[in-house]
Amino acid sequence: MSNGPFNGWPDEALDFFRGLEADNTKSYWVEHQDQYNDAVKGPMLALADEVEAEFGPLHLFRPYRDVRFSKDKTPYKTQIGAVTEGEGGEVYYVALSATGLMAAAGYHMMANDQIARFCEAVDDDTTGPELEVILAALRKRGFEIGGEALKTAPRGYPRDHPRVTLLRHKGVTAAKTWPPARWLDTRAALKKITDVWRATRPLDEWLAEQVGPSTEPPPER
What we know:
six-stranded antiparallel β-sheet; 8 helices; alpha+beta; Yope Regulator, Chain: A; globular
């Protein structure tokens, strides 16, 4: 069933998250459930319909926090996020919170076999500089390059390697964030998100060619 056209997120979406940050309780959530469904989740589902043909099905993250191993026992996430995965293993991510909108793409957290292939490609004197050029171009366009990183060079690589900063990465992502603005409540938000996902294609293509999806078996449950 179609969720209708995506026309951005109304001010009520940001109001919902501001209220949740101030009162992260079940009573607040229950009292504002309709506001969440109409102003927050509904537009994200409409966005999913709009981007599926080009990027694949967008899956929404659950709004509930996993507090089992956390000192912070607040029950709800103060943002809504959604993700889809491309054929090369790259992920396309979008999130909305009281602080604004964020869109990103790349390999968020690589498995061990992916990290090994990534390091080999970064170490190579052809493919390594290629990645440096791609990331420099993205930074020039205002992207933030992220991804969890080791504190030092991975085993087997010298600490003075010319691309040691890249070798330390356990994931590589490119993201843009925007504070709340009038365009957030319009279809301009769709263009902001898809422009980010399209602009990261050189990075995604490098990762797909040099690293690819993990071939490790899923962990036992």
